[in-house]
């Protein structure tokens, strides 16, 4: 039971990381990324391929760097066009990643995947505590990325991104480098997705292409929408509750008679789809709305000044 | 060999033309790319499978049933989802269409499972003509698509409905002033494009096995075709689809077959780099 809970918490951490990244790209900067699964896979495979040679930390850094560079290139191609194009390119990118992973057998092991991925601190943890170490590592990573995202939202960079999201023309007229800002936001998000993929690989120590389906993308969108676009706190709550609901629905099998595994997974995924649509229609601001600063926050009225 | 690939490519392209056209028509009127195209294609194939195999209807009747079912599904998606989000901008609509896509795909998976299925069809010997192998399925596909394209062309250019559609696509506000209701036009367009996609689903089911992910495999080529033609341009979408089909089949000459699906993505990237407006130069896609 404990090991099951540890697994759930680690999956929540991975989902939270992916969600934080998407929240940065879509929630904060208004850039839709439908290729989330592709970036996570790219991060996981970069780590799995490089870590045995350069160590886990350099592997993690490489995973983040590779994803950042790829995100940058994809966004550079499309970012001067309408939103639709970035979405199309990222969805195609995820497909290409999947096909390459399956077919570049020498590098990726094809459908068999890569096994024996080294874990961080592997030599330092006592036997049987390997998952505990990963758990601590995952939580640390989430806390660090969360703090980083929060700082980013409050920084001038975050403010400008929101301005660009809400009205790119006005931001450009104020002399803000709209394209450069968008590319940077997309790259930072990509790097975080790469790290989430690396964490995935660390935890399972075995990866294959079937682990990185568009479902990851759907979860991430659901988490961002449920949590409230632009709100990092809401996002972590959203990612947590979605994973909990998903885990809970595993037990539906015991409740509904005559349902098989495929139907159950279809039901769960369909629920995600319905959830996305319903939330968009009924509660577009999510459960924790993006904090809006008013002028008064910066210049308190005379009466409040002590 | 080259001629055979060219022939196969043209037929594949014709198959892509219907959903690409559907995508581009919706984009023209509502300014958003409907990501549920692939899932709707899958739904069409399963609807025809239900009529053809489970109920034992002949294939033409099954195809009509598929077109009607997907048209209904598209109309439902429009009235229940997209219409309510109309004012929220295209990103929200994109994400919503992804949600709709998940629902449709998993409805199919829930009902029919993951196993691959196919229509109840007698296997016919391919015809030979000057060394070319021509399947009956290819002739059916080409015939059906060409007829559908001609009818659609007439509808768009020569009917009051087509005029209304073009008016809304061109300038929705002005059309509204002249008494053309965007909502009604959008609903009709969705139903119409649903029928096209459903038909394409049946043709795709003739070509390959029917499974819940079949539409997903067409997604990138469909988008590539629509972009190649310039999003929003109907003739462009057809031409783009044929080019993409030929490019995919021809790639077998230089690439392993398993890399075929990368071709469409490559075409998209090249286009965005060099000619983002597509070959037929639809306007106003830049920010």
How would you summarize the topology of this molecule?
The complex is a heterodimer of chains A (306) and B (287).
Chain A: H1 2-28, H2 36-54, H3 56-78, H4 83-103, H5 105-108, H6 130-154, H7 156-166, H8 168-173, H9 178-204, H10 215-227, H11 232-249, H12 252-255, H13 261-282, H14 295-298
Helix pairs in contact in A: 1-6, 1-9, 1-10, 1-11, 2-3, 2-4, 2-9, 3-4, 3-9, 6-7, 6-9, 7-9, 10-11, 10-13
Chain B: H1 2-30, H2 37-54, H3 59-80, H4 90-112, E1 127-129, E2 132-134, H5 136-158, H6 160-170, H7 172-177, H8 182-207, H9 214-228, H10 234-250, H11 260-274
Antiparallel strand pairs in B: 1-2
Helix pairs in contact in B: 1-5, 1-8, 1-9, 1-10, 2-3, 2-4, 2-8, 2-9, 3-8, 5-6, 5-8, 6-8, 9-10, 9-11, 10-11
Describe the structure.
- The complex is a heterodimer of chains A (306) and B (287).
- By secondary structure, chain A is mostly helical.
- Helices cover 73% and strands 0% of the residues of chain A.
- Chain A has helices at residues 2-28, 36-54, 56-78, 83-103, 105-108, 130-154, 156-166, 168-173, 178-204, 215-227, 232-249, 252-255, 261-282, 295-298.
- The model of chain A has no long low-confidence stretch (mean pLDDT 85).
- Chain B is mostly helical.
- Chain B has helices at residues 2-30, 37-54, 59-80, 90-112, 136-158, 160-170, 172-177, 182-207, 214-228, 234-250, 260-274; strands at 127-129, 132-134.
- In chain B, helix 2 (37-54) runs antiparallel to helix 3.
- The radius of gyration of chain B is 18 Å and the shape is globular.
- Chain B starts with a helix and ends in a 13-residue tail after the last helix.
- The chains are: A mainly alpha (306), B mainly alpha (287).
- At the A-B interface, helix 4, helix 10 and helix 13 of A face helix 4, helix 9 and helix 11 of B.
